[in-house]
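Minutes, project check-in
Item: structure for the 230-residue chain
Input as provided by the requester:
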Amino acid sequence: MERIRIMMADDSPEIRSYFSNIISHEADMDLVGTAASGAEAVQMAHELRPDIILMDIQMETRIAGISASKQILREHPAMKVIILTILEDDDLLFQAYCAGVIDYIIKTDSISQILTSIRNAHQNQMILRPKYAEKIIQELKRVREEQSGLLYGLNILTMLSNSEFEVLKCLYQGMNARQISESRYVSQGTVKTQIHSILKKFNMKSVSDVVRHLKEIRFDRIIETMHPGS
């Protein structure tokens, strides 16, 4: 029989002892090591190469277990991490799933639930609770939309003339046509023509719409690295 090699990380000696006792009674499981911190867990995972890691979320820091899981899974993607927690904290568990953990166990779960979670993880059966699946789907959607908006904005920026780009920076900084005219030593009529051209290229009706989009794509960072004609 293939035995499941399990490592555990928790800063509570009592919790470590409790889970150790549970695992010791199972014919298909071996507890190969225990850690008391996220940092120790990372080192121990590298040395012991367990199949499953039971990882407490809050140890030396509030998210020590999540940080350790992310590092371990980056270096050892075949390992499976199950988060241990006292309460279902939506935000923390969402972060844990995003870090790559396969499941979570409430420390007060029944012994049968705990063992089922371990065996499911070993068989690569990810049990993603519906509410976290929905949050992850929404986050992926947000990232896709953000990336799409960034590409759209960058494409338009490459279509602007040098003068239009400089006017756009002024608009982003909150300047009106008169202020831009004075700062650039051109007529207001010229500035208004350039603003009209900018709106047309962005396919937007108002300067506020353009500025809102620029904020979404972090135009301030783009300014630091992009300057047409430079």
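Outcome recorded: The domain at 134-225 is CATH 1.10.10.10 (Arc Repressor Mutant, subunit A).
No further action items on this chain.
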